[in-house]
Amino acid sequence: MAKPLSLAGIDLYEQPKIRLMFDAQIDMLCTGAFTPAIGDAGSIDSGWIGPDVTTYEAAYRNLRLSRYAWVLDQLGAVKDKNVQSFEDLFTVQILEKARSDAQKYQHKPNSRLMDGYGLAVLNNPNDSVAVSMYYGIKGGHGHFDRLNIELFAYDKRLSPDLGYPDFMNAFVPGIYSWSKNTVSHNCLVIDQTIQQGNASGVVLRFHDSPTVHVVDVDAQGSYSKADVYRRTLVLVDVGENDSYLVDIFRVRGGKDHALSIHGPEGEFSLVGASLSPAVTEGTLAGRAVDYGRLYDNPILGKPGYKGSFSSYKGSGYQHFFNWQRVIPDEPVMGCWKIGGDSAAQLRVHVPPHTGQELIVADAYVSPTRKIPTILKYMLLRRSGDQLGNTLVTVWEPVSSEPMIERVKLHEVASLGRGCNRIVVMSVHRGDTIDMIAIAPEQGQQYPIGSGLTSDAAVVVISEQKGRRIRTFAAGGTKLSTNKSGDSIDIPSTISGTIRAVDYAAKRIDVRIDSGLITPATLLGRMVRIFNADHSCVYKIASARLDNRTLTLELTGSDIFTGRIKVRSVDREAGTITTPTSILYPYHLAGMHLVTEDLKHAVPVVSMDKGVIRLPPDAVLAPFVPPNSESDGRNAWIVDMGVGDRIEIERFVHKSAS
Q: DSSP letter at 57?
């Protein structure tokens, strides 16, 4: 549309969202080589998904940014040739300039959030190891996979999402019993059913320090029966090119919890426990249940059924075969070796837990078996009760030699139980011990070991031959030791209430609750903005403090999430009617409706069937169309407004170097 609109004097490339659209596909890249295979996208072998030469040629031609030239170079579009297309005969040729600009760009991204979409990416500074987590809304081509993760390292998809291998439709059962099913992803399954809810996850914390990277997402709405469904990822760097991942999944609700984990294609072994002989009859769903049969839906599974299978909500266990089990009482490790020319491996360390069953099984990537590739899965299963569960694993990418010798989970009564357990562990790697603590909330004092205590949400301390070489702590107030003068203060979390918003400038004025603040230290940090119904996260571009008013300029995303046409206003009922179609209108609750001139805003209570409900005391006159014959007024939907709360959780990072 940009070209025909330019003939009418409209330059789409001047719109900030146009650049964000081009940037998004680059920001999604993990280790510079892979796009996460989210929903019906890609496969276990995919590299980049989406960017194409035509799109980025247009982006570079109009915006002349070196990162777009870099994309063209990576796609092989700046090789030695003079004319790339017939159109080049009539436009300015950009080949030489693009080739020069591509050499100037260094793709070394920091860990990042794409919060409006629902994607978090953690990576080390060299971008040699990365993990993605999707927590957004499920659309028409989405899968039931909220909080799914993919791991990338050493130019490999070490735990690849299966993507969409068969290009099927709703009349083929495997798309719902496997490809879209929760259990085929690196996700937690409740009561052998797929996720039912479609509420976007809420980012509770996000930190990107020089050696420790953290994201913590609450996706409570994924299962109606679960009031806790939350995943915390901590990526810990070991040297310049190596990192390992600590994965904490908290759940409460339902009677059966199963964490599904899979690695790449290759040789699998389980170290630390002996598996039972493989069951080769039937599938994990039962010895009498054949591969792919919809055993847990009598209507869809009836012989001769010809309709759509989109209503299937079952386990997907009928796609697991050659299954084995064990209830280990010692730490175990699942090891996937890619083989061939690559020495890369994935090792997943699993601490023991009373009653935790480990199942190892085969599964086809393709439910129709058009693609013969088989992956090995591990399922960690526990019974659920009123306390819930906290499932702990440590994922270790290996390039040649393993880093981790053993992982020990500390068992102390004061750390709590169930989904509210404070996880404290030690990761032993040669002469270095990493002591790691992850609490569900900051503020509760707990022991870490070696004379250390803290009230932080996340702690990573590395000791080498008894000498501390790294300290990271986020949230809370202090990391205390039994040695005089050796305690470390953690910058307190900043909280407050928004008192004014300049929507055009993306600027908020916040009345802070308390605390000493040095505004310059907030640049580049994340601020969480939330109310009872909505939460969003933005990066801080600038900050200044005047008495107790903290002024923040925001960057990283566009605060405008939509625009509607106001057809009518019912001030007595407190509603606005719009003909504008909104995808997932329930998602607007807690956002704000703003007049087109950006001078007046009211919070949104709900939206249903074109009717937006607003608070009973909201002033609606500025939204009223000028007369009955007009086609209405435009209004913006915005992420934040006066009265919303903010939190800036801070961290401390110290290194011996």
A: H
